[in-house]
């Protein structure tokens, strides 16, 4: 985090002791993007604060950070499961489009 390549945005309202939500953001690099771009590995809004604009505000700040760093895109992955249909719809309302594929992992012992 000290090098500025990984950021965590925290949503607070100044009243509640706990955060309302957070968004993690880091700089990635790929040939297909022709350079640097932003990846959102974690994004969570507490259930009680969903559909109140908290997620939209967090994404707005992530977009602002991305533009300030010269990124031309942000990427996020959501599981292709029915319980994440609302999450997918949220991202689409915020301007994201489906680019294909599913995220896979390989654990390295």
* Alpha-carbon distance between the two ends: 25 Å
Helical content stands at 10-25%
What letter string, H or E per element, gives the SSE order? EEEEHEH
CATH-assigned homologous superfamily: Gcn5-related N-acetyltransferase (GNAT)
Quote the beta fraction: 25-35%
Task: List the domain count as a whole number.
Answer: 1
**Overall 3D geometry?**
globular
Quantity of strands, as a count: 5
Top CATH class: Alpha Beta
- Write down the Rg: 15 Å
Average pLDDT figure? 90
Biggest pleated sheet: 5 strands, mixed
Question: Care to describe what's here?
Answer:
This protein has one domain: Aminopeptidase (3-Layer(aba) Sandwich), CATH 3.40.630. It has two helices and five strands; from the N terminus they run ββββαβα. It is of the alpha+beta class and 109 residues long. The protein is globular, with a radius of gyration of 15 Å. A hairpin with a 4-residue loop joins strand 2 (21-30) and strand 3 (35-40). Strands 1, 2, 3, 4 and 5 form a five-stranded mixed sheet that branches.
Short description:
Helix content is 22%, strand content 26%.
What are the SSEs and their pairings?
Layout: E1 6-11, E2 21-30, E3 35-40, E4 43-45, H1 54-68, E5 74-76, H2 85-93
Parallel strand pairs: 3-5
Antiparallel strand pairs: 1-2, 2-3, 2-4
Keywords:
109 residues; alpha+beta; Aminopeptidase
């Amino acid at each position: 985090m000290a090098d500025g390549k990984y950021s965590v945005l925290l949503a607070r309202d100044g009243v509640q002791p706990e955060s309302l939500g957070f968004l993690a953001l880091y700089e990635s690099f790929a040939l297909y993007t022709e350079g640097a771009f932003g990846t959102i590995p974690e994004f969570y809004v507490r259930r009680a604060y969903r559909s109140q604009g908290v997620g939209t505000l967090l994404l707005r700040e992530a977009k602002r950070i991305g533009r300030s760093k010269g990124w031309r895109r942000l990427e996020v992955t959501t599981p292709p499961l029915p319980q994440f249909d609302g999450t997918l719809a949220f991202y689409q309302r915020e301007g994201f489009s489906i680019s294909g594929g599913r995220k896979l992992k390989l654990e390295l012992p």
